[in-house]
Design goal:
Layout: H1 2-30, H2 34-41, H3 50-55, H4 65-98, H5 110-121, H6 135-147, H7 158-164, E1 178-179, H8 185-196, H9 210-222, E2 230-231, H10 233-240, H11 259-270, H12 284-296, H13 307-314
Antiparallel strand pairs: 1-2
């Protein structure tokens, strides 16, 4: 738009400059002596004698210098008016383009479509570019607001759209770390991805709470990261990239630690095989409990919780330790009645 205005001004200035020689020529014409004007305007008659011509009075009408000057001034005023009118038109046009109407969830318009397209171009994932301001667009606007460190209202007001459509609007970075205690759309995105991969405990609320932390710990353990209350940039890249779906039956053995071990200990304790504290450490007591369970389940007692052992352990028919065996009653013979003599 600025380039267009500059081109328009250049054309107008060139037109004004082109008029200057004509005005100057007019002024020079008005300044020519009267005798010279008479000589130029009156042609001698071939039949008249030269002496007679010199004696005749000059009756040729003289140009009005004041009128010529007024015409030049009027031309300059018209040029100035044209330039101002063009600038006013450009100003109105630019105002129309840079003026935005506040948009919110539920709106449907071409302005929403333009908003969605811009968000999509910058990587904010608004969903389909259909002109309908739904939940996808709402979260997309929140991502942009979070990038600018603004309140995540989900409403695209005029000020926000001016920032969004600016040439230097920032692109979305999906891999900014998140940590427990935060309540942002980034947390919501992470929760949704964990849920899509099948991780338990997580609820898609946007709040990084204790339940979300459990899911995060499971993901970190599964992918070789140390469990922590923060999902780093590298972990998020893994989560949104090549992360595999969650499985409950990842093999465990002595020396392992973490939430998976803790969950296994809780299950062993519930079934009566483990009496210690569920502290997430696969120690000797945990190994012995696993061995006892394997024996009860008819498996080889190795003390290592492989996938087969864990399927039995978490199954509905997992054997409980020291289940009382109900003996099958021995059938008693029914005496045959002795026939009585007649």
């Amino acid at each position: 738009m600025k380039n267009h205005i500059a081109k328009t001004l250049t054309v107008l200035l060139m037109a004004a400059i082109a008029c200057l020689p004509l005005s100057a020529a007019a002024q020079q014409t008005s300044a020519v002596p009267q005798s010279t004007q008479t000589a130029q305007s009156v042609k001698p008659s071939p039949s008249a004698a030269p002496s007679a011509q010199e004696d005749q009075p000059d009756v040729t009408p003289q140009p009005d210098a004041t009128a010529s000057e007024n015409e030049t001034a009027q031309e300059n005023v018209l040029d100035q008016d044209a330039a101002q009118a063009a600038l006013a038109d450009e100003s109105v046009l630019e105002s129309d383009i840079t003026s935005y109407v506040s948009l919110k969830r539920g709106d449907q318009s071409d302005a929403v479509r333009a908003l969605q397209q811009r968000l999509s171009d910058l990587g904010y994932m608004p969903g389909p570019v259909d002109g309908i301001f739904g939940w996808g667009t709402y979260d997309s606007v929140r991502r942009f607001q979070l990038t600018l460190d603004l309140s995540q209202t989900g409403t695209a007001d005029e000020a926000l759209q001016q920032k969004l459509f600016a040439e230097d609007a920032p692109a979305f970075n999906r891999y900014v770390s998140v940590r427990k205690g935060q309540n942002t759309v980034r947390v919501k995105d992470m929760q949704q991805r964990l849920k899509d991969l099948g991780y338990p405990y997580v609820k898609v609320t946007g709040s990084f709470d204790g339940s979300t932390l459990k899911a995060v710990h499971l993901f970190q353990w599964d992918n070789g990261y140390e469990e922590s209350s923060t999902m780093s940039s590298a972990q998020l890249q893994k989560l949104y990239g090549s992360a595999k779906s969650y499985t409950r039956y990842a093999a465990l053995s002595k020396g392992d630690k973490g939430l998976r071990v803790e969950l296994m200990q809780q299950r062993l304790k519930k079934l009566g095989y483990y009496e210690g504290k569920a502290n997430g450490r696969y120690n000797q007591a945990t190994k012995e409990a696993v061995s006892d369970f394997q024996t009860a389940a008819g498996l080889k007692a190795t003390g290592k919780a492989n996938a087969k052992t864990l399927r039995k352990l978490y199954g509905k028919k997992a054997p409980v330790k020291d289940d009382p065996v109900v003996p099958t009653p021995t059938p008693q013979p029914v005496p045959t009645p002795t026939p009585q003599p007649q």
